[in-house]
Protein backbone atom coordinates (compact mmCIF):
# COMPACT_ATOMS: atom_id res chain seq x y z
CA UNK A 1 0.00 0.00 0.00
CA UNK A 2 1.03 3.57 -0.64
CA UNK A 3 2.19 5.58 2.35
CA UNK A 4 1.31 9.24 2.13
CA UNK A 5 2.11 11.13 5.28
CA UNK A 6 0.04 14.28 5.67
CA UNK A 7 0.25 14.66 9.42
CA UNK A 8 3.38 16.76 9.69
CA UNK A 9 1.87 19.05 12.31
CA UNK A 10 2.01 16.04 14.63
CA UNK A 11 5.60 15.25 13.82
CA UNK A 12 7.91 15.01 10.84
CA UNK A 13 10.26 12.56 9.27
CA UNK A 14 13.87 12.93 10.39
CA UNK A 15 16.01 14.36 7.62
CA UNK A 16 18.79 11.99 6.50
CA UNK A 17 21.33 14.75 6.91
CA UNK A 18 20.17 15.23 10.48
CA UNK A 19 20.51 11.54 11.16
CA UNK A 20 24.02 11.55 9.70
CA UNK A 21 25.01 14.47 11.90
CA UNK A 22 23.64 12.75 15.00
CA UNK A 23 25.13 9.28 14.66
CA UNK A 24 28.71 10.03 15.75
CA UNK A 25 27.37 11.41 19.02
CA UNK A 26 25.94 8.02 19.90
CA UNK A 27 28.90 5.79 19.33
CA UNK A 28 32.05 7.91 18.86
CA UNK A 29 31.72 11.26 20.53
CA UNK A 30 29.50 10.01 23.28
CA UNK A 31 31.12 11.62 26.30
CA UNK A 32 29.29 13.73 28.85
CA UNK A 33 29.48 17.39 27.89
CA UNK A 34 30.23 18.23 31.51
CA UNK A 35 33.36 16.07 31.64
CA UNK A 36 36.61 17.97 31.62
CA UNK A 37 38.62 15.51 29.54
CA UNK A 38 39.11 15.98 25.84
CA UNK A 39 36.25 13.69 24.91
CA UNK A 40 33.93 15.64 27.17
CA UNK A 41 35.17 18.85 25.62
CA UNK A 42 34.45 17.48 22.18
CA UNK A 43 30.83 16.92 23.19
CA UNK A 44 30.71 20.29 24.90
CA UNK A 45 31.94 22.04 21.81
CA UNK A 46 29.27 20.31 19.68
CA UNK A 47 26.67 21.39 22.22
CA UNK A 48 27.80 25.01 22.14
CA UNK A 49 28.04 25.05 18.37
CA UNK A 50 24.44 23.85 18.24
CA UNK A 51 23.32 26.47 20.73
CA UNK A 52 24.90 29.13 18.56
CA UNK A 53 23.09 27.96 15.44
CA UNK A 54 19.71 28.01 17.16
CA UNK A 55 20.35 31.34 18.88
CA UNK A 56 21.37 32.94 15.62
CA UNK A 57 18.24 31.70 13.88
CA UNK A 58 16.00 33.72 16.20
CA UNK A 59 18.33 36.65 16.82
CA UNK A 60 19.24 35.62 20.37
CA UNK A 61 22.50 35.43 22.27
CA UNK A 62 23.97 31.97 22.73
CA UNK A 63 23.54 31.82 26.48
CA UNK A 64 19.88 32.75 26.16
CA UNK A 65 19.09 29.28 24.80
CA UNK A 66 18.27 26.52 27.31
CA UNK A 67 17.93 23.02 25.91
CA UNK A 68 15.01 20.92 27.08
CA UNK A 69 13.36 17.62 26.30
CA UNK A 70 10.96 19.26 23.87
CA UNK A 71 8.20 21.79 23.47
CA UNK A 72 6.15 20.50 26.37
CA UNK A 73 8.99 20.92 28.82
CA UNK A 74 9.98 24.33 27.46
CA UNK A 75 6.42 25.64 27.83
CA UNK A 76 6.15 24.23 31.34
CA UNK A 77 9.53 25.65 32.27
CA UNK A 78 8.59 29.09 30.99
CA UNK A 79 5.23 29.39 32.74
CA UNK A 80 5.88 27.49 35.94
CA UNK A 81 9.40 28.88 36.14
CA UNK A 82 8.14 32.45 36.01
CA UNK A 83 5.25 31.87 38.37
CA UNK A 84 7.34 30.20 41.04
CA UNK A 85 10.14 32.72 40.76
CA UNK A 86 7.63 35.50 41.41
CA UNK A 87 6.18 33.62 44.34
CA UNK A 88 9.59 32.84 45.84
CA UNK A 89 10.63 36.44 45.54
CA UNK A 90 7.41 37.90 46.88
CA UNK A 91 6.79 40.18 43.93
CA UNK A 92 3.05 40.00 44.45
CA UNK A 93 2.60 39.06 40.81
CA UNK A 94 0.60 35.94 40.03
CA UNK A 95 -1.30 36.69 36.84
CA UNK A 96 -0.77 34.91 33.52
CA UNK A 97 -2.50 35.89 30.29
CA UNK A 98 -2.85 33.29 27.59
CA UNK A 99 -5.37 32.32 24.90
CA UNK A 100 -8.01 29.68 24.35
CA UNK A 101 -6.13 28.22 21.39
CA UNK A 102 -2.87 27.17 23.02
CA UNK A 103 -1.40 23.71 22.81
CA UNK A 104 -2.54 21.46 25.64
CA UNK A 105 0.83 21.72 27.33
CA UNK A 106 0.33 25.45 27.87
CA UNK A 107 -3.34 25.16 28.79
CA UNK A 108 -2.88 22.30 31.20
CA UNK A 109 0.17 23.94 32.78
CA UNK A 110 -1.99 27.04 33.32
CA UNK A 111 -4.85 25.02 34.77
CA UNK A 112 -2.45 23.40 37.18
CA UNK A 113 -0.94 26.76 38.08
CA UNK A 114 -4.41 28.03 38.93
CA UNK A 115 -4.54 25.38 41.63
CA UNK A 116 -1.22 26.70 42.93
CA UNK A 117 -2.64 30.20 43.26
CA UNK A 118 -2.09 31.67 39.84
CA UNK A 119 -4.73 33.81 38.21
CA UNK A 120 -5.06 33.03 34.52
CA UNK A 121 -6.87 34.97 31.82
CA UNK A 122 -7.73 32.95 28.73
CA UNK A 123 -8.22 35.38 25.87
CA UNK A 124 -10.85 34.71 23.26
CA UNK A 125 -9.90 34.77 19.61
CA UNK A 126 -11.83 35.84 16.54
CA UNK A 127 -13.29 33.52 13.89
CA UNK A 128 -9.90 33.16 12.20
CA UNK A 129 -8.10 32.55 15.45
CA UNK A 130 -6.53 35.95 16.06
CA UNK A 131 -6.08 37.51 19.45
CA UNK A 132 -7.44 41.02 19.74
CA UNK A 133 -4.52 43.26 20.81
CA UNK A 134 -6.83 45.75 22.52
CA UNK A 135 -8.45 43.05 24.58
CA UNK A 136 -5.04 41.77 25.47
CA UNK A 137 -3.92 45.20 26.59
CA UNK A 138 -7.01 45.55 28.75
CA UNK A 139 -6.34 42.22 30.42
CA UNK A 140 -2.92 43.31 31.69
CA UNK A 141 -2.86 44.34 35.35
CA UNK A 142 -0.05 45.25 37.71
CA UNK A 143 -0.06 41.64 38.87
CA UNK A 144 0.56 40.27 35.39
CA UNK A 145 3.75 38.29 35.01
CA UNK A 146 3.60 37.13 31.44
CA UNK A 147 1.53 37.03 28.28
CA UNK A 148 1.82 33.68 26.50
CA UNK A 149 0.47 33.44 22.96
CA UNK A 150 1.03 30.60 20.52
CA UNK A 151 2.75 31.76 17.31
CA UNK A 152 1.58 29.34 14.59
CA UNK A 153 -1.42 27.36 15.72
CA UNK A 154 -0.98 23.60 15.52
CA UNK A 155 -4.59 22.93 14.54
CA UNK A 156 -5.77 25.79 12.37
CA UNK A 157 -2.41 27.21 11.26
CA UNK A 158 -3.19 30.83 12.10
CA UNK A 159 -0.03 32.90 12.64
CA UNK A 160 -0.40 35.61 15.29
CA UNK A 161 1.00 39.07 14.87
CA UNK A 162 3.76 38.74 17.46
CA UNK A 163 5.17 42.15 16.75
CA UNK A 164 1.91 43.88 17.68
CA UNK A 165 1.52 41.82 20.83
CA UNK A 166 5.19 42.28 21.69
CA UNK A 167 4.84 46.05 21.50
CA UNK A 168 1.94 46.04 23.94
CA UNK A 169 3.82 43.81 26.37
CA UNK A 170 6.85 46.08 26.24
CA UNK A 171 4.73 49.16 26.75
CA UNK A 172 2.93 47.59 29.69
CA UNK A 173 6.14 46.16 31.05
CA UNK A 174 5.04 42.53 31.19
CA UNK A 175 6.94 39.56 29.80
CA UNK A 176 6.03 38.01 26.48
CA UNK A 177 6.31 34.29 25.77
CA UNK A 178 5.40 32.48 22.59
CA UNK A 179 5.14 28.81 21.72
CA UNK A 180 6.79 28.71 18.31
CA UNK A 181 7.00 24.92 17.87
CA UNK A 182 4.90 24.97 14.72
CA UNK A 183 6.19 28.18 13.20
CA UNK A 184 9.93 27.79 13.82
CA UNK A 185 11.84 28.04 10.52
CA UNK A 186 8.52 28.31 8.66
CA UNK A 187 7.88 31.99 9.20
CA UNK A 188 9.67 35.05 10.51
CA UNK A 189 10.67 34.74 14.14
CA UNK A 190 13.04 37.21 15.75
CA UNK A 191 13.23 37.90 19.45
CA UNK A 192 14.35 41.49 19.03
CA UNK A 193 11.98 42.61 16.31
CA UNK A 194 9.04 40.91 17.98
CA UNK A 195 9.96 41.89 21.52
CA UNK A 196 10.03 38.32 22.71
CA UNK A 197 11.20 37.50 26.21
CA UNK A 198 10.72 33.74 26.12
CA UNK A 199 10.29 31.41 23.16
CA UNK A 200 9.51 27.70 23.04
CA UNK A 201 11.07 25.67 20.22
CA UNK A 202 11.32 22.01 19.38
CA UNK A 203 13.07 19.81 16.88
CA UNK A 204 10.64 17.14 15.77
CA UNK A 205 8.36 19.48 13.82
CA UNK A 206 11.26 20.50 11.58
CA UNK A 207 12.69 17.11 10.61
CA UNK A 208 14.79 16.91 13.75
CA UNK A 209 14.62 14.26 16.48
CA UNK A 210 11.80 13.88 18.98
CA UNK A 211 12.49 14.66 22.62
CA UNK A 212 14.59 17.76 22.01
CA UNK A 213 13.59 21.37 22.37
CA UNK A 214 14.73 24.70 23.69
CA UNK A 215 13.54 27.67 25.65
CA UNK A 216 14.90 31.06 24.81
CA UNK A 217 15.01 33.22 27.93
CA UNK A 218 16.08 36.80 27.45
CA UNK A 219 19.11 37.81 29.44
CA UNK A 220 18.18 39.10 32.88
CA UNK A 221 14.88 37.28 33.19
CA UNK A 222 14.78 35.03 36.22
CA UNK A 223 12.92 31.77 36.47
CA UNK A 224 12.83 28.93 38.96
CA UNK A 225 13.94 25.62 37.43
CA UNK A 226 11.61 22.62 37.27
CA UNK A 227 14.45 20.13 37.77
CA UNK A 228 17.10 20.31 40.42
CA UNK A 229 20.33 18.42 39.93
CA UNK A 230 23.79 18.97 38.57
CA UNK A 231 23.10 22.53 37.50
CA UNK A 232 23.31 22.08 33.75
CA UNK A 233 22.07 24.75 31.34
CA UNK A 234 22.88 27.68 33.61
CA UNK A 235 21.23 25.86 36.52
CA UNK A 236 17.91 26.17 34.77
CA UNK A 237 17.63 22.65 33.47
CA UNK A 238 19.65 19.98 35.20
CA UNK A 239 20.31 16.70 33.49
CA UNK A 240 23.04 15.43 31.20
CA UNK A 241 22.59 17.17 27.87
CA UNK A 242 21.16 15.12 25.04
CA UNK A 243 24.09 15.97 22.80
CA UNK A 244 23.14 13.79 19.84
CA UNK A 245 19.60 15.14 19.88
CA UNK A 246 20.75 18.72 20.22
CA UNK A 247 23.23 18.30 17.36
CA UNK A 248 20.35 16.94 15.29
CA UNK A 249 18.15 19.87 16.30
CA UNK A 250 20.79 22.36 15.18
CA UNK A 251 21.32 20.50 11.92
CA UNK A 252 17.60 20.60 11.22
CA UNK A 253 17.62 24.37 11.76
CA UNK A 254 20.69 24.78 9.59
CA UNK A 255 19.22 22.98 6.62
CA UNK A 256 15.75 24.54 6.83
CA UNK A 257 15.30 26.58 3.68
CA UNK A 258 13.01 29.36 2.65
CA UNK A 259 12.69 27.66 -0.70
CA UNK A 260 11.01 24.69 0.97
CA UNK A 261 8.52 26.99 2.65
CA UNK A 262 7.66 28.55 -0.67
CA UNK A 263 7.13 25.15 -2.24
CA UNK A 264 4.95 24.06 0.67
CA UNK A 265 2.88 27.22 0.35
CA UNK A 266 2.12 26.39 -3.28
CA UNK A 267 1.12 22.83 -2.41
CA UNK A 268 -0.90 24.00 0.58
CA UNK A 269 -2.85 26.40 -1.63
CA UNK A 270 -3.44 23.68 -4.16
CA UNK A 271 -4.95 21.51 -1.43
CA UNK A 272 -7.10 24.34 -0.10
CA UNK A 273 -8.42 25.27 -3.53
CA UNK A 274 -8.98 21.64 -4.41
CA UNK A 275 -10.93 20.82 -1.29
CA UNK A 276 -12.95 24.01 -1.24
CA UNK A 277 -14.16 22.92 -4.67
CA UNK A 278 -16.17 20.25 -2.85
CA UNK A 279 -19.56 21.76 -1.95
CA UNK A 280 -20.28 22.63 1.65
CA UNK A 281 -16.70 22.85 2.89
CA UNK A 282 -15.07 25.56 4.94
CA UNK A 283 -11.46 26.47 5.66
CA UNK A 284 -10.67 27.02 9.32
CA UNK A 285 -8.08 29.56 10.36
CA UNK A 286 -6.73 32.47 8.39
CA UNK A 287 -6.43 32.20 4.62
CA UNK A 288 -3.29 34.32 4.35
CA UNK A 289 -1.57 34.51 7.71
CA UNK A 290 -1.27 30.79 7.82
CA UNK A 291 1.46 28.22 8.39
CA UNK A 292 2.80 27.09 5.02
CA UNK A 293 2.15 23.45 5.84
CA UNK A 294 -1.33 23.57 7.39
CA UNK A 295 -4.76 22.91 5.93
CA UNK A 296 -7.79 22.55 8.19
CA UNK A 297 -11.21 22.03 6.68
CA UNK A 298 -14.70 21.31 7.99
CA UNK A 299 -16.88 19.13 5.78
CA UNK A 300 -20.47 19.55 6.79
CA UNK A 301 -22.58 16.62 7.92
CA UNK A 302 -19.92 13.95 7.86
CA UNK A 303 -17.39 13.08 10.44
CA UNK A 304 -13.69 13.86 10.22
CA UNK A 305 -12.82 10.53 11.75
CA UNK A 306 -14.70 8.74 9.01
CA UNK A 307 -13.04 10.78 6.26
CA UNK A 308 -9.65 10.09 7.82
CA UNK A 309 -10.51 6.42 8.13
CA UNK A 310 -11.37 6.14 4.45
CA UNK A 311 -8.27 8.09 3.46
CA UNK A 312 -6.27 5.59 5.45
CA UNK A 313 -7.52 2.76 3.26
CA UNK A 314 -5.63 4.54 0.48
CA UNK A 315 -2.54 4.89 2.65
CA UNK A 316 -3.12 8.58 3.37
CA UNK A 317 -2.46 9.65 6.96
CA UNK A 318 -4.22 12.78 8.20
CA UNK A 319 -5.60 13.94 11.49
CA UNK A 320 -9.00 15.07 12.69
CA UNK A 321 -10.01 18.15 14.54
CA UNK A 322 -12.41 15.91 16.23
CA UNK A 323 -12.29 14.30 19.49
CA UNK A 324 -14.06 11.21 18.33
CA UNK A 325 -10.67 10.20 17.01
CA UNK A 326 -8.62 10.95 20.04
CA UNK A 327 -8.77 9.57 23.51
CA UNK A 328 -11.60 11.65 24.79
CA UNK A 329 -14.87 12.64 23.24
CA UNK A 330 -14.46 16.31 23.92
CA UNK A 331 -14.23 18.36 20.79
CA UNK A 332 -11.18 20.45 20.00
CA UNK A 333 -10.82 23.51 22.21
CA UNK A 334 -9.27 25.43 19.33
CA UNK A 335 -12.17 24.84 16.95
CA UNK A 336 -14.58 25.68 19.74
CA UNK A 337 -12.70 28.92 20.38
CA UNK A 338 -13.10 30.04 16.77
CA UNK A 339 -16.82 29.43 17.05
CA UNK A 340 -17.38 26.01 15.54
CA UNK A 341 -20.27 23.96 16.90
CA UNK A 342 -19.39 20.46 18.13
CA UNK A 343 -20.91 18.93 14.99
CA UNK A 344 -18.75 21.16 12.82
CA UNK A 345 -15.66 20.36 14.86
CA UNK A 346 -16.36 16.70 14.43
CA UNK A 347 -16.49 17.16 10.68
CA UNK A 348 -12.99 18.58 10.54
CA UNK A 349 -9.86 17.22 8.94
CA UNK A 350 -6.32 18.54 9.30
CA UNK A 351 -3.89 17.97 6.48
CA UNK A 352 -0.33 19.04 7.18
CA UNK A 353 2.46 18.72 4.66
CA UNK A 354 6.25 18.89 4.76
CA UNK A 355 9.13 19.46 2.39
CA UNK A 356 8.89 15.78 1.50
CA UNK A 357 5.31 16.05 0.28
CA UNK A 358 5.11 15.73 -3.49
CA UNK A 359 2.66 17.17 -5.99
CA UNK A 360 1.82 13.63 -7.02
CA UNK A 361 0.74 12.80 -3.48
CA UNK A 362 -1.48 15.87 -3.38
CA UNK A 363 -3.04 14.93 -6.71
CA UNK A 364 -3.79 11.51 -5.31
CA UNK A 365 -5.39 13.05 -2.22
CA UNK A 366 -7.48 15.40 -4.34
CA UNK A 367 -8.59 12.52 -6.51
CA UNK A 368 -9.74 10.35 -3.60
CA UNK A 369 -11.15 12.90 -1.21
CA UNK A 370 -14.20 14.12 -3.18
CA UNK A 371 -15.36 10.53 -3.69
CA UNK A 372 -15.01 9.77 -0.02
CA UNK A 373 -16.93 12.87 0.94
CA UNK A 374 -19.66 11.98 -1.54
CA UNK A 375 -19.93 8.46 -0.20
CA UNK A 376 -20.12 9.59 3.41
CA UNK A 377 -22.64 12.28 2.59
CA UNK A 378 -24.83 9.73 0.88
CA UNK A 379 -24.59 7.69 4.05
CA UNK A 380 -25.54 10.59 6.30
CA UNK A 381 -29.17 11.23 7.26
CA UNK A 382 -28.40 14.89 7.87
CA UNK A 383 -28.74 17.06 4.84
CA UNK B 1 -6.39 5.91 13.09
CA UNK B 2 -5.75 7.23 16.53
CA UNK B 3 -8.06 4.62 17.90
CA UNK B 4 -7.22 1.05 17.17
CA UNK B 5 -10.18 -0.72 15.66
CA UNK B 6 -10.49 -4.42 15.03
CA UNK B 7 -10.09 -5.67 11.48
CA UNK B 8 -13.78 -6.46 11.45
CA UNK B 9 -14.72 -2.91 12.41
CA UNK B 10 -12.53 -1.53 9.64
CA UNK B 11 -14.05 -3.96 7.16
CA UNK B 12 -17.62 -2.99 8.05
CA UNK B 13 -16.67 0.68 8.12
CA UNK B 14 -15.06 0.67 4.71
CA UNK B 15 -17.57 -1.68 3.10
CA UNK B 16 -20.82 -1.13 4.96
CA UNK B 17 -23.81 -3.30 4.01
CA UNK B 18 -27.41 -2.15 3.76
CA UNK B 19 -26.56 1.50 3.49
CA UNK B 20 -29.34 3.75 2.20
CA UNK B 21 -33.00 4.31 2.91
CA UNK B 22 -36.25 2.43 2.36
CA UNK B 23 -38.68 4.85 0.73
CA UNK B 24 -41.89 3.19 2.01
CA UNK B 25 -40.47 1.89 5.27
CA UNK B 26 -42.85 0.36 7.80
CA UNK B 27 -40.86 1.73 10.69
CA UNK B 28 -38.07 4.27 11.12
CA UNK B 29 -35.83 4.56 14.18
CA UNK B 30 -34.05 7.87 14.55
CA UNK B 31 -31.53 8.29 17.32
CA UNK B 32 -28.85 10.79 18.14
CA UNK B 33 -26.00 10.68 20.56
CA UNK B 34 -25.87 13.66 22.87
CA UNK B 35 -22.22 12.98 23.70
CA UNK B 36 -20.75 13.22 20.25
CA UNK B 37 -23.59 14.56 18.14
CA UNK B 38 -23.76 11.49 15.96
CA UNK B 39 -27.01 10.47 14.32
CA UNK B 40 -28.32 7.12 13.09
CA UNK B 41 -31.51 6.31 11.20
CA UNK B 42 -32.69 2.76 10.68
CA UNK B 43 -35.47 1.87 8.21
CA UNK B 44 -37.31 -1.45 8.45
CA UNK B 45 -39.70 -3.32 6.22
CA UNK B 46 -41.85 -5.90 8.06
CA UNK B 47 -43.48 -8.98 6.56
CA UNK B 48 -44.97 -12.20 7.90
CA UNK B 49 -43.07 -15.42 7.55
CA UNK B 50 -44.68 -18.75 6.75
CA UNK B 51 -45.43 -19.25 10.45
CA UNK B 52 -47.24 -15.96 10.51
CA UNK B 53 -44.62 -14.23 12.63
CA UNK B 54 -43.60 -10.71 11.80
CA UNK B 55 -40.06 -10.57 10.58
CA UNK B 56 -37.67 -7.87 9.45
CA UNK B 57 -37.76 -8.43 5.74
CA UNK B 58 -35.47 -5.56 4.87
CA UNK B 59 -33.44 -3.04 6.82
CA UNK B 60 -31.27 -0.10 5.82
CA UNK B 61 -29.34 2.62 7.61
CA UNK B 62 -28.20 6.19 7.25
CA UNK B 63 -25.56 7.33 9.68
CA UNK B 64 -23.65 10.45 10.44
CA UNK B 65 -20.86 9.38 12.68
CA UNK B 66 -17.49 7.97 13.37
CA UNK B 67 -16.02 4.80 11.95
CA UNK B 68 -17.47 2.80 14.84
CA UNK B 69 -20.92 4.27 14.31
CA UNK B 70 -20.84 3.29 10.65
CA UNK B 71 -19.53 -0.19 11.42
CA UNK B 72 -22.18 -0.78 14.09
CA UNK B 73 -24.88 0.44 11.69
CA UNK B 74 -23.76 -2.04 9.10
CA UNK B 75 -23.51 -4.79 11.70
CA UNK B 76 -26.94 -4.30 13.24
CA UNK B 77 -28.63 -4.44 9.86
CA UNK B 78 -26.98 -7.78 9.25
CA UNK B 79 -27.89 -9.08 12.70
CA UNK B 80 -31.51 -7.97 12.41
CA UNK B 81 -32.31 -8.95 8.86
CA UNK B 82 -34.62 -11.97 8.71
CA UNK B 83 -35.17 -12.03 12.48
CA UNK B 84 -38.62 -11.90 14.03
CA UNK B 85 -39.43 -8.60 15.70
CA UNK B 86 -39.28 -10.34 19.07
CA UNK B 87 -35.77 -11.62 18.38
CA UNK B 88 -34.62 -8.36 16.87
CA UNK B 89 -35.74 -6.38 19.91
CA UNK B 90 -33.41 -8.42 22.05
CA UNK B 91 -30.25 -7.52 20.16
CA UNK B 92 -28.01 -5.66 22.60
CA UNK B 93 -25.09 -3.32 22.15
CA UNK B 94 -22.85 -6.12 23.32
CA UNK B 95 -24.14 -8.41 20.57
CA UNK B 96 -23.20 -5.73 18.06
CA UNK B 97 -19.82 -5.12 19.63
CA UNK B 98 -19.10 -8.85 19.85
CA UNK B 99 -19.95 -9.38 16.20
CA UNK B 100 -17.47 -6.64 15.42
CA UNK B 101 -14.80 -8.47 17.41
CA UNK B 102 -14.91 -5.80 20.06
CA UNK B 103 -14.98 -2.03 20.23
CA UNK B 104 -12.62 0.27 22.13
CA UNK B 105 -14.30 1.16 25.44
CA UNK B 106 -14.58 4.82 24.48
CA UNK B 107 -16.54 3.72 21.42
CA UNK B 108 -19.05 1.46 23.16
CA UNK B 109 -21.64 4.23 23.05
CA UNK B 110 -21.55 4.00 19.28
CA UNK B 111 -23.06 0.52 19.42
CA UNK B 112 -25.68 1.79 21.87
CA UNK B 113 -26.79 3.98 19.05
CA UNK B 114 -27.46 1.02 16.79
CA UNK B 115 -29.41 -1.14 19.25
CA UNK B 116 -31.44 1.90 20.29
CA UNK B 117 -32.20 2.77 16.69
CA UNK B 118 -33.46 -0.73 16.01
CA UNK B 119 -35.75 -0.71 19.06
CA UNK B 120 -37.03 2.68 18.02
CA UNK B 121 -37.74 1.46 14.47
CA UNK B 122 -39.74 -1.50 15.81
CA UNK B 123 -41.68 0.78 18.17
CA UNK B 124 -42.40 3.09 15.28
CA UNK B 125 -43.71 0.15 13.27
CA UNK B 126 -45.98 -1.02 16.09
CA UNK B 127 -47.35 2.47 16.55
CA UNK B 128 -48.09 2.93 12.87
CA UNK B 129 -49.72 -0.49 12.69
CA UNK B 130 -52.09 0.44 15.50
CA UNK B 131 -53.11 3.74 14.02
CA UNK B 132 -53.55 2.29 10.55
CA UNK B 133 -55.85 -0.40 11.85
CA UNK B 134 -58.26 2.20 13.11
CA UNK B 135 -61.48 2.45 11.27
CA UNK B 136 -61.40 5.38 8.99
CA UNK B 137 -64.07 7.36 7.31
CA UNK B 138 -63.15 7.67 3.70
CA UNK B 139 -64.66 9.26 0.65
CA UNK B 140 -64.93 6.95 -2.29
CA UNK B 141 -65.93 7.62 -5.87
CA UNK B 142 -69.04 5.83 -6.89
CA UNK B 143 -68.95 5.47 -10.68
CA UNK B 144 -72.66 4.55 -10.84
CA UNK B 145 -73.77 7.75 -9.16
CA UNK B 146 -70.88 9.70 -10.61
CA UNK B 147 -70.13 11.28 -7.24
CA UNK B 148 -68.07 10.84 -4.08
CA UNK B 149 -69.75 9.31 -1.10
CA UNK B 150 -68.59 8.44 2.37
CA UNK B 151 -67.81 4.88 3.11
CA UNK B 152 -66.52 2.94 6.07
CA UNK B 153 -63.46 0.91 5.42
CA UNK B 154 -61.11 -1.12 7.53
CA UNK B 155 -57.77 -0.63 5.99
CA UNK B 156 -55.07 -3.05 6.94
CA UNK B 157 -51.51 -2.10 6.56
CA UNK B 158 -49.38 -4.71 4.90
CA UNK B 159 -51.39 -5.40 1.83
CA UNK B 160 -49.69 -7.84 -0.42
C1 LIG C 1 2.35 24.21 19.28
C2 LIG C 1 2.98 23.07 20.00
N1 LIG C 1 3.49 23.25 21.22
C3 LIG C 1 4.07 22.26 21.90
C4 LIG C 1 4.16 20.99 21.38
C5 LIG C 1 4.78 19.90 22.21
O1 LIG C 1 6.09 19.69 21.84
P1 LIG C 1 6.83 18.32 22.21
O2 LIG C 1 6.13 17.26 21.49
O3 LIG C 1 8.23 18.54 21.71
O4 LIG C 1 6.80 18.17 23.67
C6 LIG C 1 3.64 20.77 20.10
C7 LIG C 1 3.66 19.46 19.44
O5 LIG C 1 3.60 18.39 19.92
C8 LIG C 1 3.03 21.82 19.40
O6 LIG C 1 2.49 21.64 18.20
S1 LIG D 1 -18.04 8.59 18.58
FE1 LIG D 1 -20.11 8.99 18.64
S2 LIG D 1 -21.01 7.41 17.57
FE2 LIG D 1 -18.96 7.00 17.57
Task: Give keywords.
heterodimer; A: 383 residues; alpha/beta; Aspartate Aminotransferase, domain 1; Aspartate Aminotransferase, domain 2; 2 domains; 7-stranded mixed β-sheet; 4-stranded antiparallel β-sheet; 40% helix; B: 160 residues; alpha+beta; 3-stranded antiparallel β-sheet; two-stranded antiparallel sheet; 5 helices; 5 strands; binds pyridoxal-5'-phosphate; binds FE2/S2 (inorganic) cluster
Give an account of the 3D structure:
The complex is a heterodimer of chains A (383) and B (160). With 383 residues, chain A is α/β, with parallel strands linked by helices. In chain A, helix 3 (38-58) packs parallel to helix 8 (243-255) and helix 9 (258-276) packs parallel to helix 13 (359-379). Chain A folds into two domains: 4-12 and 257-379, Aspartate Aminotransferase, domain 1, CATH 3.90.1150.10; 16-255, Type I PLP-dependent aspartate aminotransferase-like (Major domain) (Aspartate Aminotransferase, domain 2), CATH 3.40.640. In chain A, the strands form three sheets. In chain A, strands 2-8-7-6-5-3-4 form a seven-stranded mixed beta sheet, with helices on both faces. In chain A, strands 9-10-13-12 form a four-stranded antiparallel beta sheet. Helices cover 40% and strands 15% of the residues of chain A. Chain B is of the alpha+beta class and 160 residues long. Chain B has helices spanning 7-14, 67-80, 85-89, 93-99, 108-133; strands at residues 27-32, 39-48, 54-64, 136-142, 147-153. Chain B has a three-stranded antiparallel beta sheet. In chain B, strands 4-5 form a two-stranded antiparallel sheet. In chain B, strand 2 (39-48) and strand 3 form a beta hairpin. The radius of gyration of chain B is 20 Å and the shape is elongated. The complex binds pyridoxal-5'-phosphate (PLP) and FE2/S2 (inorganic) cluster (FES). Residues 33, 36, 38, 65-66, 68-69, 107, 110, 113 of chain B line the site of FE2/S2 (inorganic) cluster (FES).
Amino acid sequence: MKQIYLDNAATTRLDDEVLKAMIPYFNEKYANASSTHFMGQEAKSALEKSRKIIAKEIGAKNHEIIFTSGGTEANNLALKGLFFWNRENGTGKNHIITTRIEHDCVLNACKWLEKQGAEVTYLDVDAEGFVNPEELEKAITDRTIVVSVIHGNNEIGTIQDLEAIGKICRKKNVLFHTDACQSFTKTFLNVKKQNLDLVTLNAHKIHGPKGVGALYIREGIKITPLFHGGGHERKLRSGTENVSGIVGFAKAVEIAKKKNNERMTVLRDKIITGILGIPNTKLNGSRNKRLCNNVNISFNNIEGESIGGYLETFGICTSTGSACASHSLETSHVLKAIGLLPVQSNSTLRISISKYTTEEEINYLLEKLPKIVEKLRRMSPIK
Amino acid sequence: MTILYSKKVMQEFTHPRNMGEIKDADGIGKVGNPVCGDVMWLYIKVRKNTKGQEIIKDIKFKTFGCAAAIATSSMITQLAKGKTLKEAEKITRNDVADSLKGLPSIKMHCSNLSSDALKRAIEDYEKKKKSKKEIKLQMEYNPGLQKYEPRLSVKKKNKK
